[in-house]
Write a structure and sequence with these properties.
The protein has about 150 residues and is mainly beta. Helices cover about 5% and strands about 40% of the residues. A hairpin with a 3-residue loop joins β8 and β9. It is globular and about 65 Å long.
């Protein structure tokens, strides 16, 4: 993945899932379709920035897919903007597509659509900063007991 002169380049695959999608949308960032884990990934150009590793920050990435066939646009309209969308990022070598070199599932949010591209942010919900209970007793919510 980090080699400067690798013999073979990694092929990026994405799998977009949502309860409103009967079949996940699968794309390969290549000129030919690929079959991985028994699923067909359609050849489609997309831009993907891998998750960063910044201190004190939830990993984030960006995805931009060509709006081919307008299927994604129609689905986003039906699903009210695609709330609850998950995107699985996979990287494989063409010589051995059964071995997943990289596999990560992230939340896809902030979707933006044009006639040519569908773009969004990939990341994780920040569950560590969420409250564990519905009501907290602190000086802000209950000043009388402090």
């Amino acid at each position: 993945m980090n080699a400067t002169s690798a013999e073979e380049t990694l092929i990026e695959l994405i799998e977009i899932t949502h309860p409103g999608l009967a079949i996940p949308a699968r794309f390969a960032n290549d000129t030919t379709e690929m079959v991985v884990e028994g699923n067909v990934y359609a050849a489609c150009r997309f831009d993907l920035s891998l998750p960063d590793d910044q201190d004190e920050q939830v990993p984030a990435a960006k995805l931009s897919v060509d709006n081919i066939g307008r299927e994604l646009t129609q689905w986003l309209e039906v699903s009210q903007g695609g709330a609850g969308v998950k995107c699985r990022l996979i990287m494989v070598l063409r010589s051995n597509p059964s071995n997943l070199e990289f596999d990560m599932t992230m939340d896809l949010t902030g979707l933006f659509i044009t006639n040519f591209r569908v773009s969004g942010d990939l990341g994780f919900k920040n569950t560590l900063m969420q409250s564990a209970v519905t009501t907290r007793f602190d000086p802000t919510t209950t000043p009388g007991i402090f």
